[in-house]
Write a structure and sequence with these properties.
The structure holds two protein chains of two kinds.
Chain A lengths: L2 H23 L3 H24 L8 H19 L3 H23 L4 H21 L1 H4 L5 E2 L22 H23 L2 H11 L1 H6 L4 H27 L1 E2 L6 H14 L6 H15 L7 H15 L7 H19 L1
Antiparallel strand pairs in A: 1-2
Helix pairs in contact in A: 1-7, 2-7, 2-10, 2-11, 2-12, 3-4, 3-5, 3-10, 4-5, 4-10, 7-10, 8-10, 11-12
Chain B lengths: L5 E10 L2 E11 L4 E5 L6 H8 L7 E6 L2 E2 L5 H7 L1 E3 L12 H8 L8 H6 L2 H21 L14 H14 L4 E5 L7 H16 L3 E5 L3 H7 L2 E6 L2 E6 L1 H6 L1 H8 L5 H4 L1
Parallel strand pairs in B: 3-8, 3-9, 6-7, 7-8
Antiparallel strand pairs in B: 1-2, 1-4, 4-5, 9-10
Helix pairs in contact in B: 3-6, 5-6, 6-7
The chains are: A mainly alpha, B alpha/beta.
Amino acid sequence: MNRNDWLKWVSLAAVVIALFLIPVFIKNPYWMLVLTLLWNYIIVAQGFRYIATTGEYSFAHVPLMGMGGYASALLVMKLGMSFWLALPLAVLVTAIISAIIYYPCLRTTGTFFFFASFAFGEVMRLCWVRFKNPFGGVGGLSHIPRPDPIHIPGLPIVEFTLFSHTSYYYLILVFMLFSVLTMYLLENSRLGAIAAAIKESKILASFVGIRVWRYEMIIFVIASAFAALGGCLYAHYMTLLVPEEFYWGLAIYVCIWAVVGGMGHFTGPIVGTIVFGLIKELLRPFPQIVPLIYGLILAATLALLPEGLISLPKKILLWNKRRLSRLRRDK
Amino acid sequence: MNAPLLKIRDATKYFGGLCAVNRVSFDVHQGEIVGLIGPNGAGKTTLFNAITGFYPPTSGKVFYKDKDVTGFKPHQLVERGISRSFQLITLFSNLSVLRNVAISLHLQTDIDFWGSLFHTPSYLKKQKVAETKIMEILRYTGLENFKDTLANSLSHGYQKTLNFAIAIGTNPELLMLDEPLCALSPERSSAIQKLILTVRDKGVTILLIEHNMKALFPICDRIVVLDAGVKIAEGTPKVIGENPEVISAYLGGAVDVSETR
């Protein structure tokens, strides 16, 4: 390991420790809620970008997040299941549903894929509105139970009541770190190389022996599982699910977060989600101008930093180098 | 003579009412370089596409090593050892030359998914082996100095070479090249010509479409001529160069084969 690697690992450890220490310093429940939701959206945005590594933009991703939430809420409320059992089951159910809806979608690419996935997402949302039983119609589901307390003998009981912000913060933080780690590993695995090949050229990929359709399916299902995970955690945290929350607007927001953060690297959606989350909080007194600001930032990023905010340090170095060479030339 | 490596029997392809390829049959034997020529629109690329699973032929059969491979998907053909390059340069444009070739080795490296996920020691060892393979391909295709260059910032000639390198990377037994020499500078053209011969000497059989007669005649063992979807001649370059039907259909005048040899 050289010095650069050390620096990387030390700063990474510092960030993780800082994330774990946040509840010690922030006691305000409102800010805890904001941060917890932010980490939750990072899980979803990561999944969205993971689909986009194959070059497709899926707008069924956010409805699938809702599907995960509904699945786990119904498993807990109707079948009386424990949250800890319902969570993996809901993720599994949503992964299967995603395989079913992506099956026809995968016959299309590009804009057509976007519209096909958008249509399926809306169909899912309209199903929740239309079928009062079990989805609760327009009003959605309320009084979704919080997760059961974790009781490990010898350790203090971890509760997830309405007032235990800290424990839910840690719960979502752990899942967020898990999803980031998974995305990092996937990016550097064989699957990452295959996704890059598929994004560049599906035809050439198939002519070097890659089963394009199969790998796309695997990637989409993995991504949907993360959407479902985010949805489950969201449902049981907010204790309320309304179909309106998962409308296309949120899908576009998730897309904007990922694109502005940077699609080229798994850290992009993290940066984008945090930046936009903070902007939204700063603009809380003026909610009506939030979309305007989002749009302006999106346009500016696309024009100036097409690779997203994560390419900013590299760009600054480049600008500086150009400036220096210009100065030297002028002398 | 052994059974042919590739047998094409009565391959026919209709696009609606238009017959692009009409009952074409020919064989490609192990270790040969076979050229496929014909005027524009003769159906050469259509025939290639029909063989390589781009779209299935309307009728007719393709046999590879005496097994029926008609209508197989590209990845199935690659698994059996048939690889092709494209007339229009098709690359993983935004990836480095090294990664382009690395991806083409997809099927050669039996890396298991979990190993690649956690970078286990056995995975790293296999990766080392793959790297030496990649470097070997880059070396003999002459792309070594460009290994970190993005594919789309290469010059046209080297993109063509990379196209070729990707096709070789799949470790084919039959290599199908669609106009590998078109629109190249004389020196790049002769470099790729040499490359084709090198690959043949490594035991790869080659079927290629080409317009550049001067470049094609000296390297081919046999030539198949298509015109308007029909095979009009087949034979050694010398025979083809003297065939009056071919000359009138395509060459437009006698080619002095002895000069190009």
